Structures are given as structure tokens and as C-alpha cells.
Amino acid sequence: MIDELIKYFPSIDKEAFKQKKKRWICILESMTREERLNSKILKKNRKKRIAIGSGMDIQEINNLLKFYFTLKKQFKRLSKIRNKKKIIRELMYKRK
Fold first, then answer.
1. Nearest Cα to Cα of residue 10 among 92, 86, 90, 94
2. Taking CA atoms, which of 7, 21, 28, 43 is between 20 and 30 Å from 57?
3. What is the residue-averaged pLDDT of the chain?
4. Does the model's pTM come out above 0.85?
């Protein structure tokens, strides 16, 4: 699904995004089911365990969470828009 959204953003480097996606998958596989379902429970100790399990830094986990919450906020805002053309315009021209 995310790969399909990337098509609408020509300024994003697709190769760099593929590398990030691989890292994110490693991080997500290091999380428990409960952590994946409820990301608000991720505190310092859990992030440290996930970082060790995935071979990443805690900063990388924080970046993933920031991306997730930003995307969640955008989808919530876009779900209120009924017209699909407006959604595409929102995605392409009003990135915040």
C-alpha cells in the first residue's frame, strides 16, 4: 500500500525509501504483537529491547513511530474528504 502512495510523490527517492522500508520491517518483526497493535506502550525499555533485537538504533525506532503517527494523522484527515480528486490534490500539493 505504501509503495502505491509513493507514486504520487515524485520527489521521494524510491531506492532510499526501499532501504528504509527494509529497516522498518526488521523493527516491526522485533516487536511483540501487543506492541504492534498498541504503539503507545512503547517506552524506553521496550524501544531498547526492539533496537537490540532488530540491530537498529533507538533513533531509527523513533523515526518509524514519528512516520507512523504522521501517516495516521494524514489518513484521518483525508478520510473526511469524500472526493478522490481532492485527496490526490491534498497528497501532492499540501504536504506538511
1. 92
2. 7
3. 82
4. no
